[in-house]
Amino acid sequence: MSSNNKLELSRLLKKEVRTMGIRVNLMENPLFKEIYEKHFEENVQQGMEQGIQQGMEQGIQQGMEQGIRQGMERGIQQGINKATQQIVRQMLAEGLPIALITKVTQLSAEEIQRLH
């Protein structure tokens, strides 16, 4: 370690020791201690309230995003299902065999029969 770094470290340590001494002396003062504790409690309470509020806002946002995503997925799936049903009905109307419709649509024979 260079001599400049040692001097800087020494200066910082002395400053920290003085600061710690001031903190200890202040905490021994009843008025300061009362004010500190009051503000500490207020700040902790305020921090907790802000944290809860932010958590709720993030939760709502995430819930909305997830709801939209799930709604879109369900809508797409319902659209696919409806289109498949219409195609099956058209294939049946054209007289195509159920075995062929099953092969093309990947629907079971029972599902096709229900659409008939």
Automatic annotation (TrEMBL):
Domain of life of the native organism: Bacteria
Protein name per its UniProtKB record: Transposase
